[in-house]
TrEMBL record:
Protein's GO biological process: tRNA 5'-leader removal
Enzyme category, top tier: hydrolase
Cellular component GO terms held in the UniProt record: ribonuclease P complex
UniProt-recorded name of the protein: Ribonuclease P protein component
Keyword check for RNA-binding: yes
Amino acid sequence: MLLTIKTLPALRKLTRSQRLQQAEEFRSVLQNRVTFTGNYLRLHIKPNHSDFARLGLIVAKRIEHKAVRRNRIKRIVRETFRLQQQTISGLDCVIQLRNPVDTSTNYVSLRPEALMLLARAEGYLQKYAAITD
């Protein structure tokens, strides 16, 4: 069978259990106060005591006015998270856009920044696991 984009969406999608959906889930992570900050993104994390990582995204309209740009940012961050979620299993993550992204660079700086923040979260997870063991 030939693999095409139409045959792969289920493989590339974050499942419902891998996403933060309720306001209370977001609030819980945001109140935990463990954050890592980059130029464009801020990562809030909280241990969730499960075998998988969960993601919530906050891309405010007041920061990025165009819906097309907000959706593109969310797609890039979601895909970066999906590729890294095995290394940060056991964390709830909320990634928040801090500043408008420079569109002249075609969002190139967004993926490395998201990777850097997720790597820092992985380091936190290793320290947290050492403390709780």
